[in-house]
Amino acid sequence: MTGTEPLEGAAPAVGAPLLEATGITKRYGRYTALDAVDLRIEAGRTVSVVGESGSGKSTLARVIIGLERPDSGSVRFRGEPVRGRRARRAFRHSVGMVFQDPYESIDPRLTIGEVVAEPLRAHGLYRRDGAARVRELLDSVGMEGVDPDAYPHRFSGGQRQRVCIARAVATDPELVICDEPTSALDVSVQAQILNLLLDLQRRRGLSYLFITHDLEVVRRISDEVDVLLRGTVVERGTAEQVTSRPQHEYTRRLLGAVPAISPRQRRIGAPLISDAPAVPDSKESTESKESKESNSA
Ligand SMILES: Nc1ncnc2c1ncn2[C@@H]1O[C@H](COP(=O)(O)OP(=O)(O)OP(=O)(O)O)[C@@H](O)[C@H]1O
Q1: Is the CATH number of domain 21-263+273-296 2.102.10.10?
Q2: What is the ipTM of this complex?
Q3: Where is this region: Disordered (predicted)?
């Protein structure tokens, strides 16, 4: 984990976290989905928000990225309030998002190159070297040798998620919000995608806000964890504290739902970062084979 390593580029204001959400409350009619939630992410760190279905995790992600307005509360990025059109636009430029379902989150009428180019175009960054930038982005997510003019239907779920990750980092964001990025994927592919995210974090100094219900994913990827129950944070701590010595009954229950794995399996599963390039997943198309060849070359 990149942890305390310094980041390249300008640092956030001294002492300020990269992202700070304070007192976020969101109601749908009479239902309170989020009740005065605070969240803080230091630069280069991964904060996971865990909770069972309906606890408000996705709502929190949507509010933070600005897809929904909170009833109250505020978001600060690099110490500055994310308020007003200009600040919001600048914020969107600095924050990428990866969604759960790589089938739904890609427009099937666009080529994968166009998908990755979308945020570049939206922020006026698609210039003469745009095609080369797209190539570089695809390469950086283990899609070497893959034709950018191919359409998404030719790719497996894991490969589409790689395309979504390339899109999420296209504008060189400092923060990427990942909303259950592995839960729609085959188990065999999940570890590869987590590996890729960790690898990108190491290479780019990214911070992650990781939304998940999967405590095993939390153990592997997070520095800090916030446990959400019916819109309220009931426990907060390091990944080690929360997963090894949970204080709240609800967290213990969530942990109880994690299938027991042996120490040997855990050793096999970790570390997630290997020096080998990510290998495309098993549901291969022609592109994935090409990619595999170039990976193993
Ligand atoms: N647009 C909406 N209109 C009405 N209620 C909503 C809306 N979005 C979310 N909710 C409600 O808010 C609560 C929190 O939903 P949210 O999707 O944030 O939970 P979650 O923890 O992400 O769960 P899941 O993992 O199932 O997505 C749920 O009870 C949900 O029904």
Answers
A1: no
A2: 0.94
A3: 266-297
233 and 30 Cβ atoms separated by less than 8 Å? no
- β-strands 19-28, 72-77: how paired? antiparallel
Residues written for the chain: 297
For the CA of 29, the closest atom of ligand 1 is 4
- Domain locations in the chain? 21-263+273-296
Q: What is the pLDDT of residues 258-297, one digit of tens each?
A: 554 444 444 333 333 333 333 344 433 333 333 433 333 3
Phi-psi map region of 205: left, alpha, beta (phi>0 left; psi -120 to 50 alpha):
left
Q: To the nearest whole percent, how much of the chain has pLDDT over 90?
A: 69
Please, which residues bridge with residue 48 across strands? 210, 225
Residue 135's identity, in one-letter code, is R
Name residues contacting ligand 1 (CB within 6 A): 28, 33, 51, 53-59, 213
Among 35, 39, 58, 69, which residue has the most ligand 1 atoms within 8 Å of its CB, making it the best to mutate?
58
Residue 67 has φ and ψ, to the nearest 5°, of: -75, -20
Q: How far apart are CA 281 and CA 130, in angstroms?
A: 27
Per DSSP, 141 falls in state T
pTM of the model: 0.82
211-266 pLDDT per residue, tens: 998 888 899 999 999 999 999 999 999 999 999 999 999 999 988 865 544 444 44
Q: Which amino acid is at 125?
A: L
- Residues 143, 271: Cα–Cα separation, whole Å: 22
